[in-house]
Amino acid sequence: MIHAQRDIGTLLVSDLAERLPGAVRQLSHSRGECYLHVEPSRLLEIARFLKGEQPWQFAFLANLSPVDWLSRTPRFEVVYHLRSLVFNYRIGLKVDVPDQSLSLPSLTGVWRAADWLEREAYDLFGVRFPGHPDLRRIMMSDDWEGHPYRRDYPLAGRAAE
Amino acid sequence: MGLIDGRFEKNLATDAVDTVLNLGRAYSLWPVAYGLACCAIEMIHTMTARWDLARFGAEVFRPSPRQADVMIVAGTVTHKMAPILRRLYDQMPEPKFVIAMGGCATAGGPFRTYSVVQGVDTIVPVDIYVEGCPPRPENLIRAFVLLQERVKTMTIAKLPRSTEPPIRIEA
Amino acid sequence: MNVSDSRLMTLNIGPQHPSTHGVLRLIVELDAEKVVTCRPDIGYLHRGIGKIAESLTYEQFLPYTDRLDYLACFINNHGWAMAAEKLFGIEPPRRAEYLRVLLSELARIESHLIWLGTHLLDLGAITPLFYCFREKELIRDLFEEICGARMTHAFCRIGGVRDDVTPTFLPKVREFAALFPKALREYESLITDNPIFRARTRGVGVISAERAIDYGLSGPSLRGSGVAWDLRKAEPYAAYADLDFEIAVGQRGDVYDRYLVRMEEMRQSLRLIIQVAENLPAGPVLADAPQFLRPSKAEFHRNMQAMIRYFHITIHGACPPAGEVYTAVEGTKGEVGFYVVSDGGPKPIRVQLRGPSFVNLAALEEMAKGQYLADLVAIIGSIDIVLGEVDR
Amino acid sequence: MNPATAEPALGYAPLLLTVILAAGFGAVMLLLGSLVRPSKPNPVKALAYECGNLPIGDARLPMRTRFYLFAMLLVIFDVEVVFLLPWAVNFLSLGLFGFIEMMIFLGVLLLGYVYLWRNGGLQWD
Prior knowledge:
The complex is a heterotetramer.
Chain B: H1 12-26, H2 38-47, E1 70-74, H3 82-90, E2 97-101, H4 102-107, E3 128-130, H5 137-152
Parallel strand pairs in B: 1-2, 2-3
Chain C: E1 9-13, E2 25-31, E3 34-41, H1 49-53, H2 58-66, H3 73-88, H4 94-122, H5 127-147, E4 156-157, E5 160-161, H6 169-191, H7 195-201, H8 209-214, H9 220-223, H10 231-234, H11 255-278, H12 297-302, H13 304-316, E6 323-330, E7 335-342, E8 350-354, H14 356-361, H15 364-368, H16 373-383, H17 387-391
Antiparallel strand pairs in C: 1-2, 2-3, 4-5, 6-7, 7-8
Chain D: H1 13-36, H2 43-46, H3 65-89, H4 91-118
């Protein structure tokens, strides 16, 4: 039975509350899109659940984008956008990056698309993804210092460059 | 340049040789196929049938710099690309010319960021700057016409000590 | 086949190479003629457009989206305008929605034409390039007619399109629509049944539907493997809901099927263009949301408040309510996504640009493994990458 | 006496002259070129061109024998064409005799080609 996109969030939260209790902190909505706030430690579990489970099948990782909130602690947050092509659902996962380790489990095991997206996130933001087969810079040259997309990195580049 | 370059004063013979050499160079400026970004698309348009760069003898886009005379820097030059661009320029045989096509190559264009070189003339000597983002094909063709005029002024004769008068800044 | 490392030849298909469609570098390890590994090295055109967006208001950033996928500029503008409209909560008028579909489909045909030209050029046939650019120039004239610019026209606006089309625009579109099918037949007579083209592309660079979805492929690269997923149908935006067209889907997921998908897509785009040209609704082309958008020029000259509001919005930019939005449009290479986070200020605090070419390029290594070096060139052409979108 | 087969009066002098002329023409052109063209050598220009990168890997690699086989095939079928040229020039004077002789020559080579094709010599891997 295919649900309407509006109430995907609530159904998903209730389904997750049963099978993976404590994994989802809260559900937020913005402009008609629903975002699940996920425990960083349980990210891998949730990812496999969302991709594998029959009623959901979120097999398409559309986007992975870190967000630098600068003054907030924890400072970084990574947002995943998932699509289920079979049921035409769309969901967003928001995961806070723990400040001291600055790392999240890598999802390349679940979605192959995460490979380059995580390398870009590491290169431009400095968020590490342990478990990634080949985590190195993808955009900047290998000897580049600093992570340019952080909000405290000047747009026109550091003078030393 | 071989045995005869810069060896003789400007006389009838060197003028004759100049005319022949410059005629050959001016009307067969082979660009190196080297598109960086959006300007490259406009460069391809200039090459195809409607704008027809062939009328100016420059439609042969050589993939290797070894067989090219002009390097059209068509697009944004980033710091990661700069050493490669310089190496390509060095690997081109003399006499070689550079056309900085578009705002990005001329002065960094709309991208005042950490990774963009603000103007390709900090890397290679540029002969002609083409304005526009991307420049219309007519601009690029005008650049080739200007370049041809410049090529025609080249000479093998010995140049006097300094050709241009020193710039005097009025008190 | 035990391949000792010493026998592998490392080949640099570098940033300056005719078949990499821009500044892409491939480090390829070859066993005689077979590709063993092919690692793309990108970033040679990384301009930091996402970071630029954080220092500009929503309206100021629009021209930068032209420089992302610079083959189909209008589609990026359309995506960014939709993302901003969702944030502001503005609804563009019907006429603007229809015009956006018309111009997006023109941009799609234009992008597929340069894909076809350069793809065949890499395989050694130079004639199609000149045929395709003949029609491409006609489309550029259409864009030049309504906005004066050939390529980076930034004709879209938040809340609609910049201007209404000129009276002679629609007749010229109909003229183009009448002429283009003949041109398409001309290309296909040259290419589709050409035995050399078939030998070079049938069964080359195959990727299965599951692997394509796993890699996050989208657009013709995904539909070539048999997955009927097109954002214009899955999440109808603009006026796509009330227009009828089909999605072209391949079966085998090789270079030849991706070619067939794109050729069929050009026909479907033409159908859309004809439908929009026939029943283009009347009305304004720009929404009037006083608190976010600038008043019209006529209004600007008539009263003082409008003038003040005009300057205020132009200089400081309008502030959308806080929130985040992920809007995706069906670009020519796949899903062009804009994830915009706003904290209520005039400028977004984070813009993530999802470039389909960037994601599709990651699958190149798997497609090229075990193929000949010459086929690698065909595969790059069939994924149709644009470096402005890969490096952003 | 059939002029074509007679002992040429000047011996092989004309042949020698053409060889000298051909080689001489090439040599003079190259010499003139070195005189006139600008030469500004620099170390980077001397580097091997690799799409703008520093050359990586090593060119001296053990090549697969497949390449050598294809090279041999090229030589065989090129030489075959070389033999056709003199025949084509003297086509009328050689008449039927020349024609039959050539057809036998081509037939033998065609047989070789079919044998080669049958045994997969043209397959790459």
